[in-house]
User: Which sequence fits this backbone?
């Protein structure tokens, strides 16, 4: 069965990668809109989350409209991530902007370059975070992932990643390899921090939720600069990767607590959500008790 799933998936991938990117985006949006009506469970999750965060300022009809657009965006992003993974950087340039990357430490030939931690989230076509490697080849791009339960699907999805040199580490089994990379320095590590995970409780969009401390702990332990990077949707099949202001890990010469750092991380992501609510992943149960 795993082999059947894998080869059927390969056929779909080849077909999607054959289409022009804007066609892929339209097909994905249509599929996402259809799923909004068919997938009642995730539709309820999205509307519940949106109502909890924006119910005091938006009418139910507006919340339903945001949820519907969110499903379209998710369909567009997943379909486009399959297409963009096979595109050269030259072909992708007309569809992708970069903003704020001058904030990151420039290349240095006279000293060991520290690694940089980028806190990222499920914004836009989040697979595009790996393309930072194309504009900062001096930094070894890397991120973590959690393998899928279905081996065929996991093999399929991993086959799409890493074509441009970005390295992917499985969170539960390859932590030692990630630490080795950080010890060597010169890496840009993207860590997804916007899903419910064991950790402290911290406010996000006005409600407490579990927040993973890993990004803050690694930044402190390896003396890394810490930034947020958000993938903004600028239009059909157009995105911008935007670096936020540096999130300080020290104050008055002393290390800040991991909890204080992650509260500031949550605030940075919250600003991005409020800027364009449909651009975030509302179908996840972020606020679990």
Assistant:
């Amino acid at each position: 069965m795993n082999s059947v799933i894998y080869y059927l998936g390969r056929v779909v991938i080849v077909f999607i990668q054959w289409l022009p990117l804007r066609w892929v985006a339209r097909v994905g949006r249509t599929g996402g809109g259809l799923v909004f009506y068919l997938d009642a469970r995730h539709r309820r999750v999205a509307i519940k989350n949106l109502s909890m965060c924006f119910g005091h300022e938006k009418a139910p009809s507006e919340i339903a409209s945001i949820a519907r657009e969110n499903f379209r965006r998710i369909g567009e992003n997943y379909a486009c991530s399959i297409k963009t993974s096979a595109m050269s950087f030259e072909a992708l340039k007309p569809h992708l902007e970069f903003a704020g990357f001058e904030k990151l430490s420039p290349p240095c030939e006279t000293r060991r370059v520290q690694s940089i931690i980028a806190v990222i989230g499920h914004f836009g076509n989040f697979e595009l975070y790996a393309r930072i490697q194309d504009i900062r080849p001096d930094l070894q791009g890397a991120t973590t992932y959690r393998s899928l339960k279905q081996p065929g699907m996991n093999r399929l999805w991993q086959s799409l990643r890493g074509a441009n040199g970005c390295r992917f580490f499985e969170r539960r089994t390859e932590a030692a390899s990630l630490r080795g990379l950080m010890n060597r320095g010169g890496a840009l590590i993207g860590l997804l921090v916007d899903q419910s995970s064991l950790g402290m409780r911290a406010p996000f969009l006005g409600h407490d939720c579990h927040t993973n401390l890993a990004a803050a702990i690694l930044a402190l332990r390896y003396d890394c600069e810490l930034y947020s990077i958000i993938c903004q949707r600028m239009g059909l099949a157009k995105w911008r990767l935007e670096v936020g202001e540096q999130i300080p890990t020290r104050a008055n010469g002393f290390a800040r607590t991991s909890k204080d750092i992650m509260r500031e991380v949550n605030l940075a992501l919250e600003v991005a959500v409020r800027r364009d609510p449909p651009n975030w992943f509302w179908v996840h149960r972020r606020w679990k008790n």
